Amino acid sequence: MRLQLSTWPEVETYLKTSKGIIIPIGSTEQHGPNGLIGTDAICAEEIALGVGAAAGALVGPTIGVGMAVHHMEFPGTMTLRPSTLVLVIRDYVTALAEHGFERFLFINGHGGNIATVRAAFNEVYAELRAARGASAPEVRCRVISWWENESVYGLSKELFGSSEGSHATPSEVSVVQYLYPDHIKGAPLDPPVAPSSQFYDARDYRRRFPDGRIGSNPGLSRPEHGKRLYDAAVAALADKYRSFVGEA
User: Fold this and answer.
1) Is the whole model's pTM more than 0.85, yes or no?
2) Neighbours of 240 (CB within 10 A)
3) H/E run at residue 156
């Protein structure tokens, strides 16, 4: 159900029975000593594809670079300015809306995207309203992070407890280990559980969290944990997608 692997007649046929589409959005940023730089984009894309298969939904191209300016002290990180990301999302949605899509579920893999994604949705609504007034299509956009459900939260708590943390978490690293078992990395983690606090800019982030982790112990990551988390996320988000597209 990938948009890129469909033909235009197939999309035209799909739109006769469904106006919904899933857009994965992640980030390309450091994930500690043993986490892959593509973690957030990988999780969002693969879970979105699982949801698409489960719910019979088209899945659009992944937005793989997000708002990650606070990680820029770590080599390999890429970022978009918030204003750039707003424009990318606006253009994704308005292009697809022109063809008749009306329900856009963004499956997110990076907490730092959320404020910008929600701002982009209002840009979409404002642009459509300005162009079409009361005759504008009733486009609705929603963003849900893949871990934002009781199933994944409960499983993360069961598996990792307080060592889950908030960045370079064992949950997200486990999911990537399950999806890419040939790319499992090992690295010393000292201390095993990273410190946790607030931060300001990228330099302050690196100063407070020198190996990139926040409050987490990704040394607990295992591919078998990742499979359980992946399955839980797909099931929960498929239900959320069905409810979203079925709203009156």
Assistant:
1) yes
2) 18
3) helix 150-160
